[in-house]
Amino acid sequence: MGRVFVETERLVLREVEPDDADAIFSLNNDAEVMRFLNGGASADRAQIAGELIPSYLAGYQRFGGLGRLAAIEKAGDRFVGVFKFQPTDDGPLDEVELGYRLHRSVWGRGYATEGSLALIRKGFTELGLGRIWAKTMTVNRRSQRVMQKAGLRYVRTFFEEWPEGPIEGSEHGDVEYELTRDEWLAMGS
Ligand SMILES: CC(C)(COP(=O)(O)OP(=O)(O)OC[C@H]1O[C@@H](n2cnc3c(N)ncnc32)[C@H](O)[C@@H]1OP(=O)(O)O)[C@@H](O)C(=O)NCCC(=O)NCCS
Known about the structure:
The protein has helices spanning 21-28, 31-38, 45-62, 111-125, 141-149, 181-186, and strands at residues 4-7, 11-15, 67-73, 78-86, 95-102, 131-137, 153-158, 174-180. The two termini are 31 Å apart. It is an alpha+beta fold. The protein is globular and about 45 Å long. The structure holds coenzyme A.
């Protein structure tokens, strides 16, 4: 099994492994899950197994163990989604982007918030991070709600060209949220 990164009451977040290809395909092939990510386009299983997962594995080397994490529901030992917790390619290593994508069957149970809170705690206490940030489409209110519940605050709205071209709602732009280590410490978390 891939190395465990962090554990919460109901979830284990561990490194992605090649055997996750089917589970990631079913996640990325759900148009509702992908609605605010690529407009709901379908996924390509061969690309997931041959390119996406290898890129995740290479990322662990490159970013000192940070990267994409498989979320496993402890009850039933079931793959329920993927979290992102990694620096950008050209950004500082102590600034990490947080993201989450869960199977529709588990939405609304607080898993995204629970996983995010655990990642943030680990990031600021064990990993020496200075800033954790997240972005999503302005119209993705559900995702923003998770950011807020995880303690991140709104920073800005911005507009940039998407490689895939415009999708429904992209005319409203994207939002960025953030939480610095000092803010997190001041929250007495
Ligand atoms: C975003 C996502 C990860 C949230 O996962 P989740 O485990 O259901 O999130 P949580 O249960 O922790 O919290 C969801 C919150 O959003 C709220 N919410 C749900 N639908 C909403 C909506 N349409 N508008 C505003 N808030 C909404 C919920 O009520 C809940 O807040 P509350 O606890 O204050 O009631 C999940 O919906 C998902 O995978 N979406 C598709 C992928 C995606 O868009 N990811 C983000 C890309 S940046």
